[in-house]
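Researcher: Please translate sequence to structure tokens.
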Amino acid sequence: MSSELRISPRDRQVLNAVIEIYIATGEPVASQAVARKCGEKEGMSAATIRNVMASLDEAGLLEQPHTSAGRIPTARAFRFYVSQLPHTTASAPLTPQRQEQIEDSFAGITSSQQFLERTSHVLALISSGVGVALAPVTDLHALEHIHFSRLTAGRVLAVVVTKAGLVLDRVLVLDHDLGQAELELAARFLNENFHGWSMERIRAELVRRMEQERNEYDRLMRSLGELYRKGALHTDASGQSLFVEGVANLLASELDRERLQQLLRALETRQRVVELLNAYVDARQQTVRVVVGLEETLPEMQDLVLIGAPARLDGSHFGAVAVIGPTRMRYQETINAVSYIAQLSDRIFQPPQ
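Model: Translation complete:
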């Protein structure tokens, strides 16, 4: 909608001043406040500013909560305001102090899972909104290493380490006892043949091989079939891994109690948040995306903003990072932080020279 909006430079100056004052104060903005901010500098009288604000009201960019009060920006106004901002750190860099704060927060990170978990915390802290990070299930559940240990007759401990650093372990109760040598042979076969494969793909391939193999691998395939059927490669999650922090930050917003309760329920329903990120953050996008008003996807999130970007490692997409917060947000600073963190993973996981 903002791309279709055409207003004069004077109207834009007044609208931007109203938005910035409203972000800072949270109160309806009177013409006197705009005059103090830009009147003298731009050579506009108080009467001119009042007329401009009235025309912006008629255009659907400002609204009056009460007849005697000042005006507040509409969602359309925020979309126009955001469209004027740089959406990459290259054109609007973070301050050195903020860069240092972010990089210190990621000290000691050794896996993409840890990176995304820490990201949600850092973004919540910086934005005073909700920090969100999403890992694709294929990345989260790609095999790095598997190990089997025989505990007692018919009982085996299976330990699966994923490429994302997630450790999945479970005790399998088998119908037929397997010795430690057979377990080690099965683990070696999986590690050598399926390293980097998703669990879903490994399971499908094992089923195919168990149906087709009728040669010297029969015994190995019987062992693998027993381990597979008892859940050795089960991931306990069919969806994507989601990290959310900072929900309490919304408690300080101006949302009424009923809407806030609806919003908190939506955020607790993690699949709804996954759907939200998948709807708005595209792995192919090269810059941060800002969406003002999320009610088309989640009605409970009306008047909230999403600022998100895909995270990459060696040029490949491995997740999404975002902030969800009220329209009264420090947009440029949050855009910069999301952009910087989305590009930070490549440097964090670079091997030492």
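Researcher: Any highlights?
Model: The radius of gyration is 27 Å.
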